[in-house]
Design goal:
Glutathione S-transferase Yfyf (Class Pi), Chain A, domain 2, mainly alpha, 5-stranded mixed sheet, 675 residues, two-stranded antiparallel ribbon, globular
Length: 675
C-alpha cells in the first residue's frame, strides 16, 4: 500500500519512495475534490459540521502527504524526489487556489453565514466563519470567471518559480567548496572549526581541510580567520550564490514580484504588502514600514557610534593608516574588539554546550515553566540516522510528538525551521499534534560531541518555541490551531524562548562542560552577559534593512523606473551596512525567506522585529516573577501557546501580559533605550 495515502502515526518515513509521490497525490487530489463537491452540493440544512468543519477536514489527507513530500525534498533531496515534487506541485497549487474560486462552495458558505445557527455560534466558531469568509473574498471568490482563471494561473506560476528559486540556492551553495592544504592558512580559526573542516575533507576522501558555504563552516571563517584574502573569497562566493550559471535566480525575482503585484491588484489591493498584511497585526504595508523606520531612527545614533568605535579599534591594532573596514572584515574585527572589550570569546562557551545536553536541559527548562515532559522514543522510522523522535506529555496525557534533525547535509536546505506534519484534535483521543524542527548546527567531529555556539543554542530554543506553539495548541478547529496565526504574531513563541539561554537559573540546567561536567564559571557568565549588547545596534540595523528592503520591493519597486532588482536591493542594503558592499553583491538572489515560497515572508520580514517587541515585553513578566516561575509559564501557555488564532493576537497578548506591549523593553535589552 502507498504510505502517503493514509495518515499514519508514527509516520512511515522508511517506506516513502519518490515513485509513490505522484500516484498518491493524484488520488488524494481526487478525494479532496470529491469532498469539496459534497460540501458544495445543496443541503437541506446547512450546519457548522457539514459546511465549515467539513471544509476544514476536506484537504487534511492531501495536506499531510504533500507536506511530507515537501519536507523530504528539503532534508534528503535527490534528483528523483525533486522531479516527483515538481511534478505534483502545480496540481496541488491549482487545486488549493480552486477552493477559494469554487462558486458552489462560496454559495454554501454564504448560505450558512445567514442561517440561524450561524448567528448563535460560540465565539471561536463564529470567528472561524468570519475568517473563512474573509479568506474566500481575499483569494478571489467574488472575481468574475476570467479573473478566477487568471488568479489560478498566477498561483501555479508562483509555486513553480519559488520552488525553482529554493532549488537554485541549494544547488549553488553545494557547488562551492575549498580545500585548504597549508595549515598556516588556517591561522586564527578555532580548533572546533579545524576539526570539523578536517572531518569534512575526510568524508569526501580528501586530505586537508574542507570549507563550504554552509553556516557551520562559513561563519567561523568570517569571524576568526586571520587570512583576509580567504575571508574575502568566501564572502564574495556567499553573497553571489544563485547569481550566475545554471542556478541563476536573477530572472526569477522580478517575475515573482511582478506576479505577486498582479495578484494583489487583481484582488483589489494596491500592492502585495497590503494584500499579505490585511489579516496580520500591522494591517497595512505602510504601518509595517513606519514601524521599521521608527526603530531605525532610534537605532541610528548608536549604530554610527559602534562603527566608528570598530574602525578606531582596528587602527589601534594596525596603525592610523589602516584602511576602512571591508564587509569581510566586519565580523573578524568585531570579534576581536568584543574579546578585548569584554574579555569574552564565544568559543569559550562551546565546551559547555554539547548538543544532547542542550536538548535535555531545554526540555527540563520548559518542563519547569510549562509543566510538560519530553521523552525520546527510539526505534521510530526516520529519514536519516541523525534524526530523533520525541513525545510530549502533560502528566499522563500525550499532547504531541516531533522529529529533530539538527545537522547539515549536502542534500538538505540551509537555515533552521519548524514545520507541522499533523494537527491534532484535542477532543479526539489518540489524535495528537506532530511536528519537526530542523537546523544546520555544528556537527560532532572526531571524539568530540557536537559542541554548539551560544547562537546555535538560541536557534535550538527558537525552533522549539515554534514546536511548542504547535504541539501545545488546544483549539477545536484545525485551521485555527498552533502556528496558524497572524504572521507577525507567530515569532512571539519562538523568539521569547531564546531568553532562557541568557539566564543563570536556566543555563545551570544544561550548560555543563562536556568533559568535567562543571557549569559555566560565574566570571565567564558575567562576561557573556556584559557582551550581550555588543554591536546590538548593528544587529538591529541588519534586520531592519532586510525588513525595509522586503517592503520596498513589494510596495515600491518598478523595474521600468528602478532598473535591475539586484542593484536596487544592494543600494537599499547599503544604507544598513557598516561597510561598502561590493558591486557584485547579490544577496537578494539567495533570500529564501522572501522568494522560496509563493508567500512565505514576502512583505512579512518585518515580523521578526514586530514579534521581538512583543517577546521582550512578555519576558519582562518572567523576569519580574522568576524566569522558571510555573504560574507565569501557565499563563503564557494558556493565553498564547494553547490558543492559536482563536482570538485576535492583541487580545491574547493582553490576556497574558495584562496590558498592551511596550517598546522600551526591547530597546533596554539592546542597550539603545533613550536615556
Amino acid at each position: 500500500m502507498n504510505p502517503l495515502l493514509e495518515i499514519q502515526v508514527p509516520i512511515p518515513f522508511d517506506q516513502i519512495r519518490p515513485e509513490q509521490v505522484e500516484p498518491a497525490i493524484d488520488e488524494l487530489l481526487r478525494r479532496a475534490q470529491a469532498a469539496v463537491e459534497e460540501i458544495a452540493r445543496p443541503q437541506a440544512r446547512r450546519t457548522f459540521e457539514n459546511t465549515l468543519l467539513a471544509l476544514d477536514q476536506a484537504t487534511e489527507g492531501l495536506e499531510y502527504a504533500y507536506h511530507l513530500v515537501q519536507h523530504l525534498e528539503s532534508v534528503v533531496s535527490s534528483p528523483e524526489l525533486r522531479a516527483a515534487h515538481n511534478a505534483v506541485e502545480p496540481k496541488v497549487t491549482a487545486f488549493t487556489s480552486s477552493i477559494f474560486l469554487h462558486e458552489g462552495l462560496w454559495k454554501a458558505l454564504q448560505e450558512y453565514s445567514v442561517s440561524e445557527e450561524a448567528r448563535s455560534l460560540s465565539p471561536v466558531r463564529k470567528r472561524y466563519l468570519e475568517k473563512t469568509m474573509d479568506a474566500f473574498r481575499r483569494h478571489g471568490a467574488e472575481l468574475d470567471p476570467a479573473g478566477k482563471k487568471r488568479l489560478e494561473e498566477i498561483d501555479v506560476e508562483l509555486a513553480k518559480l519559488t520552488t525553482k528559486f529554493s532549488e537554485n540556492v541549494l544547488d549553488s551553495t553545494n557547488a562551492f567548496e575549498e580545500i585548504i592544504t597549508n595549515e598556516a592558512d588556517l591561522a586564527g580559526l578555532p580548533e572546533t572549526a579545524r576539526i570539523a573542516a578536517e572531518a569534512s575533507a575526510k568524508a569526501k576522501g580528501k586530505q586537508g581541510w574542507r570549507f563550504t558555504l554552509q553556516a557551520p563552516s562559513y561563519i567561523p571563517l568570517m569571524t576568526f580567520l586571520d587570512n583576509a584574502a580567504m575571508r574575502e573569497r568566501f564572502y564574495r562566493a556567499y553573497q553571489t550564490r544563485a547569481s550566475q550559471g545554471p542556478h541563476n535566480n536573477a530572472p526569477l525575482v522580478p517575475r515573482i514580484l511582478e506576479l505577486r503585484k498582479a495578484k494583489a491588484q487583481l484582488l483589489g489591493f494596491a500592492d502585495f504588502a497590503d494584500f499579505a498584511l490585511v489579516d496580520r497585526m500591522a494591517k497595512t504595508g505602510r504601518a509595517a514600514i513606519e514601524f521599521l523606520e521608527s526603530l531605525r531612527e532610534r537605532t541610528l545614533p548608536r549604530y554610527h557610534q559602534e562603527n566608528e568605535e570598530l574602525l578606531a579599534f582596528r587602527r589601534q591594532l594596525e596603525g592610523a593608516e589602516a584602511p576602512p573596514l571591508a564587509p569581510w572584515d566586519v565580523a573578524y574585527y568585531a570579534e576581536k574588539e568584543r574579546a578585548a572589550k569584554y574579555h569574552f570569546d564565544e568559543e569559550d562557551l562551546r565546551p559547555y554546550f554539547p548538543v544532547n545536553q542542550v536538548l535535555n536541559g531545554m526540555f527540563e527548562t520548559f518542563s519547569k515553566v510549562f509543566g510538560i515532559t519530553v521523552r525520546e522514543v527510539p526505534g521510530v522510522p526516520c529519514w536519516h540516522p541523525d534524526v530523533k523522535y520525541y513525545e510530549i506529555y502533560d502528566g499522563g496525557q500525550k499532547l504531541g510528538a516531533f522529529y529533530a534533525d539538527w545537522f547539515p547535509r549536502e542534500n538538505k536546505r540551509d537555515g533552521a525551521w519548524m514545520d507541522a506534519f499533523l494537527t491534532g484534535e484535542p477532543a479526539v483521543a489518540g489524535r495528537h499534534h506532530i511536528g519537526v524542527i530542523c537546523g544546520n548546527l555544528t556537527q560532532p567531529a572526531g571524539d568530540r560531541p557536537a559542541l554548539l555556539t551560544h547562537r546555535e543554542v538560541e536557534t535550538v530554543f527558537h525552533e522549539f518555541g515554534h514546536l511548542l506553539h504547535h504541539c501545545l495548541s488546544r483549539v477545536e478547529v484545525r485551521g485555527f490551531s498552533g502556528t496558524n496565526v497572524a504572521w507577525d504574531f507567530v515569532e512571539l513563541p519562538s523568539q521569547i524562548m531564546e531568553n532562557w539561554c541568557w539566564e543563570r537559573e536556566s543555563l545551570d540546567l544544561f550548560a555543563r562542560h562536556w568533559q568535567s561536567g562543571e557549569p559555566i564559571p560565574e566570571e565567564l557568565f558575567q562576561r557573556m552577559k556584559r557582551a550581550r549588547t555588543y554591536r546590538a545596534a548593528n544587529n538591529q540595523m541588519r534586520q531592519l534593512g532586510f525588513g525595509i528592503l522586503d517592503l520596498k520591493l513589494h510596495r515600491e519597486y518598478d523595474p521600468a523606473r528602478d532598473g535591475d532588482v539586484v542593484a536596487y536591493s544592494r543600494a537599499i542594503l547599503q544604507e544598513f551596512s557598516p561597510a561598502p558592499l561590493p558591486s557584485e553583491h547579490a544577496m537578494i538572489l539567495a533570500f529564501t525567506h522572501l522568494f522560496g515560497n509563493p508567500v512565505g515572508y514576502g512583505a512579512g520580514y518585518y515580523s521578526y522585529k514586530w514579534a521581538e517587541v512583543l517577546e521582550a515585553d512578555a519576558f519582562s513578566l518572567f523576569q519580574e516573577n522568576g524566569v522558571l516561575d510555573p504560574e507565569t509559564g501557565r499563563r503564557f501557555r494558556e493565553h498564547i501557546l494553547a490558543k492559536g488564532a482563536s482570538q485576535e493576537p492583541e487580545a491574547l497578548y493582553q490576556a497574558f501580559r495584562g496590558r498592551p506591549p511596550q517598546l522600551n523593553a526591547l530597546l533596554k535589552r539592546l542597550g539603545i533605550a533613550d536615556s
